TrEMBL record:
Residue ranges constituting the DSBA-like thioredoxin domain according to the UniProt record: 9-207
Record SUPFAM superfamilies: Thioredoxin-like
Protein name: DSBA-like thioredoxin domain-containing protein
InterPro entries on file: DSBA-like_thioredoxin_dom, Thioredoxin-like_sf
Amino acid sequence: MNAESKSITINVWSDFVCPWCWIAKRRFEMALADFEHKDLVQVNYKAFRLAAGQKAAPIKQVLVQKFGNEQSANGMIQAVVANAREVGLVYNFDTMLFGDTTKAHALVKAVDDSYTKMVLSERLYEASTTDGRSIFEESSLAEIAAEVGISASFVQRAWNDEALPSLIAKDEKEAHEIANGVPLFVFNNGFYISGAQTVDAFKQALQRMHLDAIEAESFQGQTCGLNGCDN
């Protein structure tokens, strides 16, 4: 198989309550849109829960507890908001919640159609981050799913599917074997990019994979892990 026909598989781990994940997703999408061989790229989105088992709480409260003081928490918030603005995203930290996203991830995993999965994922980010809506309660999630054409019966079947939590846990185990936080992008099971890297960094990674120049190295930026988010 020559470089012109070589496929590129990218596995992406993220969480809907991760402050840096939506930014990284948008930067990656911008890089992919400009990639000459984007038709050869297959993107697989995988689940990761930053707050498994934790009750939903205001994210500003969570960040103050993580950093130990309000000033440091506000510094991170300002950095996230500024980076988000650069790629056209709106972050409203006053209404954002942080908690266990098992139900949201299970719903996304239950969707087979790749386009619907993509639209639902984007809507979950927007609902949680911009609109201040809960993605933790079943009633709120069902309303969000309905907005992208997913029926209430499908939603209920997804939450009753006992196999989906195991698949989420499997995704997380794979991620922990590679890096310590999300967002995480793994290219052709070769090198990885962690964090909200620049659009140019994603472009370079795509080009490298297209040319099959795989090296054992990685690029790291701002990430969120089980103990909180980096500045």
